[in-house]
Amino acid sequence: MQTSGTVILLLREKNPDVCTIPPTAMVYDAIKIMAERNVGALPVVEGGRLVGMISERDYTRKVVLIGKSSKNTPVAEIMTRNPVAVGPDQTVGECMELMTEERVRHLPVVVQGELVGILSIGDLVKWIISAQDATIDQLTKYVFGEHAS
Fold it and tell me: Domains in the chain, start-ordered, CATH in brackets?
């Protein structure tokens, strides 16, 4: 693996099942799905198109802290609209830079307007660590004369 790997390579390593939620669903349902799936955010999809993202951060800041009810608040009311997204050819480095600049922890992957996956900061860190481990292994073999065939 390489640090400069692309989004499409990362997605091949992940479960292809992306859980989404419609904007009309209640926030409670979104939080329940996130807890069941052990994820921190969900893409909000309407008519096959990504229209937003809802995260645990949205929930705590836009529901809990202002005293709203998660059972009576629609996802559309608190979701992040027009979320930053990436395409399949973007690199891990570009994704990390984008996440840092935009202060987000999840990046939807979109091809021609359709959601095809989602990457978390954890996915990117895992990829980078794996790439570094592979590089260290190759260098160790080179230094000690154990050339791979």
Answer: 7-143 (3.10.580.10)
Rounded-to-integer distance, Cα 132 and Cα 127, Å = 9
Longest dimension (CA), the chain: 66
Residues 77-85, mean pLDDT to the nearest whole number:
95
Output the pTM of the full model.
0.82
What pLDDT is recorded for position 147?
57
* Alpha-carbon separation of residue 134 from 10, 13, 130, 131, 137 (angstroms): 16, 16, 6, 5, 5
Contacts of range 11-15, beta carbons closer than 8 Å, 24 or more positions apart: 11/88, 11/109, 11/116, 11/117, 11/119, 13/127, 14/117, 14/119, 14/123
Q: CA separation (Å) from 117 to 49, 77, 120, 125, 135?
A: 12, 23, 10, 17, 27
